[in-house]
Amino acid sequence: MISAILNMTIFKELEPYYAQHLTGRELRQFHKAAEAGPCRLVTQIIQPNAFRPGRGSYMGVECRADILGRSHLTARDLVEGKADWEDQSLFTNPLRIAQQGELDFHRPMNRTVLGPYYVHTFEFDSKDMAFFKQQLSWMRSAVAQWFRKPFSAN
Prior knowledge:
- By secondary structure, this protein is an alpha+beta fold.
- Helices cover 37% and strands 10% of the residues.
- The protein has 2 domains: 1-37 and 137-154, no CATH class; 44-121, no CATH class.
- It contains 6 helices and 3 strands, in the order αααββαβαα.
């Protein structure tokens, strides 16, 4: 799936690997997404809720999926300006802040909390290029256009 936060640098690094398998239309779709800037999902939902120590919650925001415990440290650094939002591509729903050593630190699914938003995603990941192309087409459909309106660029 195309990330909610898409960095043009990362796109350019990956393009040689998949460009040969995509049509011009699909490549233009990637270029348009990469050049559009942050969407409202990022600026109005993820960024304001990324780190809320007063509520004891955060949204795990990371550049990789293998981060130990999905800690709040990257979200804190992002909010404090010590890390770059454009380097991030993955996020979680709100989690309770936990410190390493706490019993449930390594189990973020046990630390979910209610927050102002809940993002539900359906992921059907496959290594098959035909399926990847099908996922790209979902983002171009008339239904996708209608659903994307609330999250389009400002």
